[in-house]
Every structure is written in C-alpha cells, then in structure tokens.
Specification:
single chain, mainly alpha, Farnesyl Diphosphate Synthase, 16 helices, globular
C-alpha cells in the first residue's frame, strides 16, 4: 500500500479518470452530498481501526483534555491513510507509521488549538510551546496536562527521527512548525479582539492551522525516492492544498465554533466583511440567530469557489513535479473535501 489508492470510497476516482472528474468539479456539487454518499463515507470512518499507539494516546487525551471526540481520530486515519493525500514517494514500510505520526501530531496540535481558542488559557499555551521548543525542560509532574503533552510529544519526535530522510528535511519541518505556532497565537489574539478579523489575515495566518506543510513534511522524511529538484514546486502545491484543507475545515466546523464562542474562522471573517453580522452583534446575538444569518448568505458558495481556484492552480503544477504522482494527490484532495462535507458537526 503506497497511498495511491483512494480507498474504494463511494464516488472514488482513479487516476485515469482525473480529467473527467475535473469537469465534475467545475460545478460546486461536491459541496453537498446526498444521504447515501454521506452514510457510506461515515461508515468508512466508523469502521476504521486505529493502531494501538493511537488508541493509547486517544484514551489518555480523553482523560486529560476531553475536548475532541473519538470520531476525529478515526476520521483522520481515513483521511491521512485512505484518500490518496499521502505522497506517493512514501516508502511502503513507513506508510502506516507515517499515518499514525500524522494522527498523533494532529492530536498534539488539537491540544494547542483548543487551549488557544476554546479554553483561552495563555499560561498553559506557553507551557506547552516551551515543551515543544525545549523537550528536556522540567515540568511539574503533578500537572497532568503538561505531563501528557510531553509524553505525546516525545513519542512523536522519537518516531519522526526514525525516518530515513529526517536529517534532510528537519530544518524545513521546524521552520514550518514555527508558522503553525504563529497561527495559534494569531487565533488567540483574534478571540480576544474579534473586531480585527479579516479574510486576508485568515488566508495568510490561520491557514497554517491546518498543518498541511507539516503533514506532508512527514511524508518527505519517509520518502527516500523524492527528488529534491521537485521541492520548490511541491511546496507551492502544499500551499494550495493547505488553503483547500482550511476551507473544508471551516465549512464543517463553524457551527460548533459558534457555540464555543470561537470566532477564528474565515466563515466569520466573511460574515463581517459582507456585513452579514458585525463584531458587536456576535457578542449579543444567540447562537441560533448567528447560524441562521450566515446560512442564508452565499458564504458556502464563496468558499467552495476559492477551493476550486486553488484546485486548478495546484493541478497546473502537475507537470513540474516528476517524482510524486500528483494525479493521485489531486484525487486525494477531491476525496478529502467530501469527507469534510460528510462530517459536518461531527468533529
């Protein structure tokens, strides 16, 4: 298994059918799924079996933080392992490990994300960031939150260092990691001052919240067959994929975030800029009224159009990247947006 097979999902795509499916994706029908499509995709998530390592950390996470449900870790396993977004250069022997590393990294990042956006605990956020930057830093062993984060982080780093190209790509990976930390700090600031929200900032800063550069950076570390001449072009592809992932996540989580009073989303930036709601209203209106106003706008169509624009720009890079099967990567991104749409309100 090298990540090329989209996983046999409903409406799945083979490489030979890419051009035909690009035509299908020229309308916005992929933004809505019928009940049968949704049920079949969700069944694949329900049936997914996480590894023992992931199961352990998921159970410990639930005891210590309990801000994300178990569905999310299974959903990530399907998205990272079965849709086609794993780079085709990942060596077979590292494929499952790389998938688990991505789930565990996302779990660690979810802690950062929720501490900054939901509990808004700046002191804890700084402690966790210090663990990342100083893995040997002493912590209070009685502090179960920092102790758990240190355990999951050390496991992730130890696995990452075992990949054959870790030394080759570690400097790039840690640079990209700093961009993610900056996005976490940006989102904490936005929740303090929602009046500053705008779409340009969201696309520039909040997109790093999706950690696509990091996820595909793990792939590169497990890809001894990747040609470094492709690196500048593949990073352009990662940029577009990250914007697309950000949109999929915005569209599938914004209603939950209304109820959490978490307004770090392009959905709210769009609503402010289009005067659907304003920063003062969002503090006064009830959750249901906010949701109703946004749903009655053309917000969803706006973001799906941007998703399509990024898809087209990424597709135009295909001929410049020789060592990675970019058709499979594009198919994977088509599959991922469907999983986002199917999982609205569940993660």
């Amino acid at each position: 298994m090298n990540g090329l097979n989209p996983g046999g999902m409903a409406g799945s795509f083979d490489s030979a059918g890419l051009q035909q499916n690009q035509i299908q994706f020229n309308d916005l029908s992929f933004g809505s799924l019928n009940d049968y499509e949704k049920k079949e995709l969700l069944m694949k998530v329900t049936d997914y079996q996480v590894s023992e390592d992931v199961k352990y950390f998921a159970q410990e996470y639930e005891k210590v933080f309990n801000m994300r449900n178990q569905f999310l870790w299974k959903w990530l396993g399907v998205v990272y392992g079965d849709t086609g977004v794993t780079l085709s250069t990942v060596k077979d022997q590292y494929f499952k490990s790389a998938t688990d590393s991505k789930i565990i990294l996302t779990m660690a990042f979810s802690i950062l994300d929720d501490v900054s956006e939901v509990t808004k605990d700046e002191e804890l956020l700084n402690k966790i960031i210090n663990i990342i930057k100083n893995p040997d830093a002493e912590i209070n062993e009685n502090d179960e939150k920092t102790s758990f984060f240190k355990e999951i982080w050390n496991h992730f780093i130890t696995t990452l260092r075992s990949y054959p190209c870790y030394n080759e790509y570690k400097d790039i990976f840690w640079y990209d990691f700093e961009q993610m930390i900056n996005s976490v700090r940006y989102n904490m600031l936005v929740n303090k001052k929602p009046e500053m929200i705008n779409l340009q900032d969201m696309h520039n800063y909040d997109c790093h919240n999706m950690i696509v550069f990091l996820l595909n950076g793990i792939d590169l570390m497990a890809s001894p067959g990747f040609n470094k001449k492709d690196l500048p072009h593949i990073r352009k592809a990662f940029w577009h994929a990250q914007q697309m992932a950000r949109i999929g996540n915005w569209l599938s989580t914004w209603k939950r975030e209304v109820k959490e009073q978490d307004f770090c989303s392009g959905v709210f930036a769009y609503a402010f800029e289009k005067q659907i709601i304003d920063a003062d209203e969002i503090k006064k209106l009830g959750d249901d009224k906010i949701i109703e106003k946004i749903e009655q706008s053309d917000m969803k169509k706006h973001f799906l159009n941007i998703w399509m624009e990024n898809y087209g720009k990424l597709a135009s890079l295909k001929e410049q990247i020789q060592s990675v099967n970019m058709e499979s990567y594009l198919i994977g991104l088509q599959n991922v947006i469907k999983y986002h749409m199917a999982s609205e309100g569940l993660k």
